[in-house]
Amino acid sequence: MIVQLTGTLLSVSPSLVVLDVNGVGYELGVSANTAASLPQAGEAGVTVLTRMVVREDAMELYGFSSREERALFDRLRAISGIGAKLALSVLSTFTPQQLASVVASEDVTRMTQVAGLGKKKAGRMLVELSDVFAKDAELRNLVGLSGLSDTNVSGGLSAHTSLDDEVTEALLAMGFTSQEAALALEGRQEAGALSIEKAMSYALRRLGSGN
């Protein structure tokens, strides 16, 4: 596996760079943040961290300016429905530290700034990334969250559970059944209903529409 290349930078664009290594030109897909951090074309001795992605119809190389960005690229690609292109789009929109902040604050609105990411998918991505940060101490260290414990980082996840409990209790008091409450709350995280008020409104809309 190719994990790093050092050579002369032949060209740089917001999404692609070409690196000449001993006469062989390597085209690397990059994020806009990595592209902006690289020197101008023609510079020699440029080192780029890499990750090779092998598909049935292609072998592609992606380049990164930091270990943090490469680690997040790997974690993003592990989420169902997120390929290399969307992962790079996320990393073009946020630095690793900014992404960690967005995940910690469960900011669906900021996450939808990523090109090609709708509100529903952004909500699901936040939930999955929250779980990733909670379980991966090495990743937390890389993005500067080393001072937080697993419990601190996963607080958002436990908050989802307690929020569901509170909304369910309120719906039961209104005369709905437990089954109706559970069905009404399905998909609320993906829809961005991450506060009591929004979750309650979401559930009541679903109950009113019969969905």
UniProtKB/TrEMBL annotation:
This is Holliday junction branch migration complex subunit RuvA. The RuvA-RuvB-RuvC complex processes Holliday junction (HJ) DNA during genetic recombination and DNA repair, while the RuvA-RuvB complex plays an important role in the rescue of blocked DNA replication forks via replication fork reversal (RFR). RuvA specifically binds to HJ cruciform DNA, conferring on it an open structure. The RuvB hexamer acts as an ATP-dependent pump, pulling dsDNA into and through the RuvAB complex. HJ branch migration allows RuvC to scan DNA until it finds its consensus sequence, where it cleaves and resolves the cruciform DNA. Belongs to the RuvA family. Homotetramer. Forms an RuvA(8)-RuvB(12)-Holliday junction (HJ) complex. HJ DNA is sandwiched between 2 RuvA tetramers; dsDNA enters through RuvA and exits via RuvB. An RuvB hexamer assembles on each DNA strand where it exits the tetramer. Each RuvB hexamer is contacted by two RuvA subunits (via domain III) on 2 adjacent RuvB subunits; this complex drives branch migration. In the full resolvosome a probable DNA-RuvA(4)-RuvB(12)-RuvC(2) complex forms which resolves the HJ. Has three domains with a flexible linker between the domains II and III and assumes an 'L' shape. Domain III is highly mobile and contacts RuvB. Residues 148-160 are annotated as: Flexible linker. One of its GO terms (cellular component) is cytoplasm. Its main location: cytoplasm. It comes from Lancefieldella rimae (strain ATCC 49626 / DSM 7090 / CCUG 31168 / NBRC 15546 / VPI D140H-11A) (Atopobium rimae). InterPro entries: DNA_helicase_Holl-junc_RuvA_I, NA-bd_OB-fold, RuvA, RuvA_2-like, UBA. HAMAP family: DNA_HJ_migration_RuvA. GO terms for biological process: DNA recombination; DNA repair. One of its GO terms (molecular function) is four-way junction DNA binding.
